[in-house]
Design goal:
This protein has 157 residues and is mostly beta strands. Helix content is 4%, strand content 57%. A hairpin with a 4-residue loop joins β2 and β3. An eight-stranded antiparallel β-sheet has the order 1-2-3-4-5-6-7-8, with no helix packed on it.
Length: 157
């Protein structure tokens, strides 16, 4: 299903002109109230150019006390391996940064490269390679090299 922004959303966000039928755009915003001093605000924006397959996702969240995270993911989707129109391949690079999330003076940096190959209508093969750096003023941690790989079935709802 392709989501098209409503005319009101186009006017408010001014990111997709009314004739920009080659784009998919999604955005969200949220507010959380955990306690008197722990309000939380989150927002994200995703944009896909359907013709080229180039896509971008940006997210940011912040607490009242200054803790925050930011995430950016850029990628491309296309028929690179010749499996046909329905079996596209996706490549992406992701960068996440968080400050004071696990306590004052902590920070996390996560960088990854991913690929997903559609093998059938609902079957995907995926691989993600990442590097995680964690800093803490109290404890000493080693940086982590992360690999995720597998096959997954995507359920239609």
């Amino acid at each position: 299903m392709v989501w098209e922004p409503t005319p009101v959303a186009r006017k408010i966000l001014k990111l997709c002109p009314p004739d920009a039928s080659g784009y998919n755009f999604k955005a969200d915003a949220g507010y959380g109230y955990a306690s008197r001093n722990d309000d939380y605000v989150h927002g994200s924006v995703s944009l896909l150019h359907r013709v080229s397959g180039i896509n971008l996702h940006v997210a940011h969240g912040q607490y009242d006390d200054g803790r925050f995270y930011a995430n950016t993911k850029a990628g491309i989707i296309g028929d690179f391996l010749g499996f046909g129109e329905s079996y596209k391949t996706a490549f992406s690079l992701q960068r996440t940064y968080g400050d004071d999330l696990n306590g004052e003076g902590t920070s996390i940096n996560y960088t990854s490269a991913s690929t997903v190959q559609n093998l059938g209508p609902n079957l995907q093969l995926y691989v993600q390679l990442g590097l995680q750096e964690y800093d803490d003023t109290v404890n000493s941690y080693l940086d982590g090299k992360i690999t995720f790989a597998g096959v997954r079935y995507v359920f239609d709802f």
